Amino acid sequence: MTPLLQVENIAKFYGARIGCTDVSFDLYPGEVMGIVGESGSGKSTLLNTLAGHLTPDRGAVRFDTRADGLRDTVTMSEPERRMLSRTDWAFVHQHARDGLRMNVSAGGNVGERLMAVGARHYGDIRASATDWLGRVEINEDRIDDRPSAFSGGMQQRLQIARNLVTGPRLVFMDEPTGGLDVSVQARLLDLLRGLVREMGLSAIIVTHDLAVVRLLADRLMVMKDGHVVETGLTDQVLDDPQHGYTQLLVSSVLQV
Amino acid sequence: MIRVENVSKSFTLHNQGAAVIPVMRGGELTVARGECVALTGASGAGKSTLMRMIYGNYLTASGRIMVGDLDVARAAPREILDLRRNVLGYVSQFLRVVPRVATLDVVAEPLRAVGSNEAEARARAGELLAQLNIPQRLWQLSPTTFSGGEQQRVNIARGFAHPYPVLLLDEPTASLDATNRATVLALIEEAKARGTAILGIFHDEAARDQICDREVDVTRFTPGLAA
C-alpha cells in the first residue's frame, strides 16, 4: 500500500532557534496520528509545516495525489498546493475563528468551500450545507445565523463541517478540543471518530491532552525541544513509555 | 496461533534514578487453535505483562511473539493495528470508551471496524448484550455510568462481537454473579469450539478448571524468582 503522506527529514528553524528537526514518518490511509508534547515543543510548527503554512528549511513532504501519485508538496507550485489544501486537505484550527468567516452565515461558511472546488448550483450547495450541519449536530434553523452568534463548541463543529464538506483525505487538527468544556469535548471526540471511520479519513492531531489521543489516535509521536523523542502505537507509548520525557508526561496526568 | 519464544522484558524508570527492573526472562508459551491456556502465578509475577506484550501495548526487549504469521515483538504499528482489527481480540479488566457513546455502539464497534454494516453490527451487539443480561433500556446509554459488573459484561460483549481467531482474556469472570459467569464461560466454550486460540488469566479456579486445557506458570519466567 502507498502511504498517503510521506514525511522525510523535515526541519524548520526560526533563525538559529529550532522549530522542529529530523522528523520523518509515513501516514497510511485511514490512520490517525497524534502528536503530543508540551507547549514550545515544536508540534504546531511541525503541523503547519506539513500543511504548507510554513516553508521547511529542509526535507520533503510527499502526498499521494489523485492524479500523479506521490508528489513533494514543498517543491510543488503555490497554485497546486492551494488546490490541494482546498480539496484533499483540511485544517482544523484550535480557535474556530481562525478557520471560519465570522461575518458570513453558517451555511455560507460551509458552501464557500464547495464553491471553491467548482460547485455552482445554489440548491445543491444549500442541501450539502444542511446535511453537514446536521452531521455536526447544528440545528438546521441556525443555517442563516452567523458564527459570531454561536457558542464556542458550535463554532468548532461548524469549522469541522466546513473542512470536511469537500471530502478531504487528510485532515490536520491543531488542538481541536482545546478550550472546550468536557461535555462538548466528548461530543466532538465522538463526532470525529465517527467521521474518521465513515469517510476513511487520515488525520494528524496535535494536542497536549493524552486522554484525547488515547481515544482518537492509532499512533503517537512525542516531541520535545523540536525533536521527536518517541513514536509508536498510541497505547504502547502511553502504557510502556521508553523515553524519560514520555514517562514524565504520562506520570504527570491527573487521575479523575 | 500464539507462539512466544524466549522473550524478555524490563522497565527502565528514567525519572526514578534510571532504575532498571527486569520483569521477564526466557518466556515460552504456545496456544494452538481451539485451545484455552491459563496463565498462573502470584500477583506481580508478570501474567498481565506477558499478555500486554502479546497484544503489543508493551514492548518486548528480546525474543519472538508470533500471533498467526506476525511477530508482534518486531512488527510496525500499522501491522499490529491490522492484527488487532482482524485477528487478535483482548478483553481487559477495564472498559475504556469515548464518553457519551451508546452501549450498543460500543459493542458494535469491532464489527464496524472490519466493515460490517451498521444494522448487522448492531443486531449482533444486541444479541450479545441480551445474552449477558444487560437490560435493553440501557443499550442507548453510555456504559460509563454502569456498575462495575455491567461494565465488565459490556467489555466482554465487545470482545466477543467479532469472532477473532485469537483471544486474550484478563479475568473475564471477575465481579460477575453466578448466572452471568455461566454465560461468559459458555461464550468462551463456544469460541473454543469454533477454533479460537484463547489465552487467559483466571483467578476464578473453578472457571479455570472448567474451560482451560493447560496452565502456564509465569513464575518460571520471573527473574529472581525462577528456581
Automatic annotation (TrEMBL), chain A:
Domain of life: Bacteria
An MF annotation (GO) of this entry: ATP binding
Keyword Nucleotide-binding: yes
Sorted UniProt keywords: ATP-binding, Lyase, Nucleotide-binding
SUPFAM superfamilies documented for this protein: P-loop containing nucleoside triphosphate hydrolases (SSF52540)
InterPro entries (alphabetical): AAA+_ATPase, ABC_transporter-like_ATP-bd, ABC_transporter-like_CS, P-loop_NTPase, PhnK
Gene Ontology biological process terms from the UniProt entry: organic phosphonate catabolic process
Listed CDD domains: ABC_NikE_OppD_transporters
Occurrences of domain ABC transporter (ranges): 5-250
PANTHER family xref list: PHOSPHONATES UTILIZATION ATP-BINDING PROTEIN PHNK-RELATED
NCBIfam families reported for this sequence: CP_lyasePhnK
Designated name of the protein: Phosphonate C-P lyase system protein PhnK
Lineage of source species: Bacteria, Pseudomonadati, Pseudomonadota, Alphaproteobacteria, Rhodobacterales
